[in-house]
């Protein structure tokens, strides 16, 4: 299935049962809520998906099961976060075999590769597959920045098509557009900068709080793209305290707690992560409860 790299792409959480197995029933409940809200793709195995805690067979199951669940409505994207080029190439092969339509790729994990090593890593994987690739550029959390000069080299690979822009520097969107035009699609990867990024020309939004609030997220995107900026901004201002739950070391626990509150998830996380407790839990619940109580009425955003 062709990947347009525009619109809202939820980086979905992975659901677990109380005995720490994949909870595909609740996972499908969430996926169907995303589809009903009008999302444009599904991303598996990102930070929110607890990728580092998933077993290899679980990743295979998630991809194939999600492909079945979406039934061709939207593309399924698998994240690659590996320590070696060899493992990344194998992961790309498995993602395609299991039905993924595209890949999101982090730079090499653990080892802080230099620019040349990072470019070589991306090119090796890109040249090993025909799946389209979105570069995940997040130097704040993963310590390697994919610079504009590096993108110049990556542009040689036709299937490196987009970037999840998570540098936290809004002006980087303008730099990308000034240098490359529309060669790379740009998707905001930071919830609290998403609308600002769309105003600056980003094509889409890889979203986190969409996991709990899919309709509001898609409404913001579609209203902005339709030129109804004030309506988008009003919803975004309501959303911001919730979006800030995504820029936190415990974003997985925060967002899963929000999914419970909206009825499309469970709180179960995989150790060493633990569910929130005490004052921390009370604080997050207060933000979620306030958001739900003041939830805005949405226009008919699906028919703009």
Automatic annotation (TrEMBL):
User: One Pfam match, by short name?
Assistant: DHDPS
Give the active-site positions: 136 (proton donor/acceptor), 164 (schiff-base intermediate with substrate)
Query: What family is reported?
Result: Belongs to the DapA family.
Q: What is this protein called?
A: Dihydrodipicolinate synthase family protein
Per UniProt, the keywords (alphabetical) are:
Lyase
In terms of superkingdom, the source organism counts as Bacteria
User: Which residues does pyruvate bind?
Assistant: 206
MF-aspect GO terms: 4-hydroxy-tetrahydrodipicolinate synthase activity
Q: Does the keyword Lyase apply?
A: yes
């Amino acid at each position: 299935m062709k990947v347009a790299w525009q619109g809202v792409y939820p980086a979905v959480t992975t659901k677990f049962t109380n005995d720490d197995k994949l909870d595909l029933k609740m996972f499908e409940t969430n996926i169907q809520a995303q589809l009903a809200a009008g999302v444009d793709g599904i991303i598996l195995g990102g930070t929110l998906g607890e990728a580092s805690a998933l077993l290899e067979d679980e990743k295979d199951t998630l991809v194939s099961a999600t492909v079945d669940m979406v039934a061709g409505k939207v593309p399924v994207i698998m994240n690659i976060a590996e320590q070696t080029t060899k493992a990344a190439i194998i992961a790309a092969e498995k993602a395609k075999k299991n039905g993924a339509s595209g890949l999101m790729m982090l730079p090499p994990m653990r080892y802080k590769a230099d620019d040349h090593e990072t470019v070589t890593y991306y090119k090796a994987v890109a040249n090993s597959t025909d799946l389209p690739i979105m570069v995940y550029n997040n130097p704040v959390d993963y310590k390697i920045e994919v610079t504009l000069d590096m993108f110049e080299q990556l542009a040689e690979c036709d299937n490196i098509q987009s970037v999840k822009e998570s540098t936290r520097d809004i002006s980087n969107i303008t730099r990308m557009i000034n240098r490359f035009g529309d060669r790379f699609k740009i998707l905001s990867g930071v919830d609290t900068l998403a609308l600002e990024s769309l105003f600056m020309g980003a094509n889409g939004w890889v979203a986190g709080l969409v996991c709990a609030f899919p309709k509001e997220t898609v409404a913001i995107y579609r209203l902005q793209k339709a030129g109804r900026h004030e309506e988008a901004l009003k919803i975004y201002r309501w959303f911001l305290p919730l979006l800030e739950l995504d820029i936190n070391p415990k974003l997985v626990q925060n967002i899963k707690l929000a999914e419970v509150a909206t009825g499309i998830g469970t709180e179960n996380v995989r150790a060493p992560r633990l569910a929130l407790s005490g004052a921390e839990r009370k604080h997050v619940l207060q933000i979620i409860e306030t958001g739900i109580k003041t939830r805005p009425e949405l226009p008919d955003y699906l028919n703009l």
